[in-house]
Amino acid sequence: MSNKLSSSVPTDREVVLGVLNNSEEALNKLYTGYFPMILQFILNNNGDEDDAKDVYQEGIIVLYNKIKSGDFELSSKLKTYIYSVCRRIWLKKLAQQSKKTNNISDFEDVIAIEEDVEQHEEKDKQFDKMQEALLHLGEPCKTIIQDFYINNLSMQEICEKFGYTNTDNAKTQKYKCLQRLKKLFFQS
Amino acid sequence: MRNEIELEGIIEDYLNGKLTEAEANAFEQLRLNDPTVDHKVVAHKVFLDSLKDYASNLDLKNKMDHAHDQIDVDALSRKLGPHPSFIVNMWRKNKSAIAVAASFILLTIVTIYSIQQTTEQTGSYKQMSAELSKLKSSTNNLIRDVKSSQNSKVPVKPVKFGGTGFAISSNGYILTSYHVVEKSDTVYVQNNKGDLYKVDITYKDPINDIAILKIIDKKFSLGSLPYSLKKGKVGLGESVYTLGYPKDEVVLGIGYLSSQSGFNGDTLAYQLSLDVNPGNSGGPLLDNSGNVIGIINAKESYTDGATFAVKAKFLQEALSSIPQDSIVGRISSVRKSKLSKLEPSKQVSKIQDYVFMIKGYN
């Protein structure tokens, strides 16, 4: 069975440039271009739509990190790379759920991407740790940290948003929050 | 506390490259001199990097979720998902396994079949009546022509079937293989002196492959039979010999009993290691003491020297079919073989008078 997918996909060069420029349009094209391939793979190998979404998004993150780290060379087709990464991730998940991983129906060529996936797993752990730490931090600390470090608001804006009387108070509050968050992050 | 907050502010600015060159230099000096500050810088950098990664991943995920919402996943799933039919899925997923299983079964069948082929002595069974071709018989024909001038009864037609038979009574009953005479309407027997007698077929037993012929000439008489019938068991490896007419002259064949059962385990017959040729069928099988232990009926065509003979005990039934008053000096009345004391070569010369060539015509 080789339902080769004919939906429009961006060229590999387009994607790499788009990722490096943080282009949202490029991401959309990339995402919609290759999703059917992974959906087909997952559905035909004991997975459902949600599994496909999770696996595919992880795969795209791996690709992003790879491109952004600068050592992404177009030695293979982007399609093959994405497929191989997602396949690897899904096989690991199947193994974790102790479902059988033999008789995998493949739809594309597969290349070796073990290293990239392992690196990703390492980073994914950090991501989960951070998420966990932020969750335990509680309000208003969480929002203050997110606004300052993620949404890049200035101290002045934060001061106004949370109604602190002056920026020094806000800074003190942020400092305390950050200390707690660090503690949670490094301890877990 | 105050200082701590100030310090962290500076570290952040330093890491983000917001300090002026002079400030940055001063701060680096501070790091060199104060290990605690240096440690804080490193720890803060690791933390900030993680936070940044977290932020960018989160951002990416949000964007992807947004992109994902634009895809009609259900429609795609219907198109790309596995076939709803269980069997089709089964086939798709286990194509290779099914193929392996199928070839294994095929291989097994072939193997079993070939094993059977080799263990069975199939199709190589060949009865030893000589079905003489026209070419061969043309030479016979010449001889017959000569003979026919002596005996007006002899037909001019060429011999169609040939075999061997032996006397089982002194008044002209002759035992042979059924297949020797089965296709013939007219049968003659010829003794070793070349005298020809017409016979009737008085008994036919296709199952045991036995036929009994009777010489029509009432004046025909032999001396009392030199051999007896041995119905008991014959040991494996015992020497045996036979006399027969694969050609116009009597031929002696010597061998030994190689198996108690015949072709494909047929218990009616013995297997012998004995070379016979077409024409030997119906010939007597004798042991060294001159007892008839069987009647030659076939050989295996692809194995040299594997010959089969019907066991003597199955001849008994045939013999009892002959009317008791018409039989004189029959074989079963011979108590003890007159040959038992003689050497095999001497036995042969005595016996050959009682062995006949069977000639069938149709």
Question: What do these coordinates show?
Answer:
The complex is a heterodimer of chains A (188) and B (362). By secondary structure, chain A is mainly alpha-helical. Chain A has 2 domains: 12-114, Rna Polymerase Sigma Factor, Chain: A; 138-187. Helices cover 70% and strands 0% of the residues of chain A. Chain A contains 8 helices and no strands. In chain A, helix 2 (24-43) packs across helix 3. Mean pLDDT of chain B is 78; it is low at 133-156. In chain B, the strands form 2 sheets. Chain B has a 6-stranded antiparallel beta barrel. In chain B, strand 9 (239-244) and strand 10 form a beta hairpin. Chain B is an alpha+beta fold and 362 residues long. In chain B, helix 1 crosses helix 3 (35-69) and helix 2 (21-33) crosses helix 3. The interface between A and B is large, with 38 and 38 residues.
Considering the chains and any ligands shown, give keywords for the structure:
heterodimer; A: 188 residues; mainly alpha; Rna Polymerase Sigma Factor, Chain: A; 8 helices; elongated; disordered N terminus; B: 362 residues; alpha+beta; Thrombin, subunit H; 3 domains; 6-stranded antiparallel beta barrel; 15 strands; 24% strand; rod-shaped
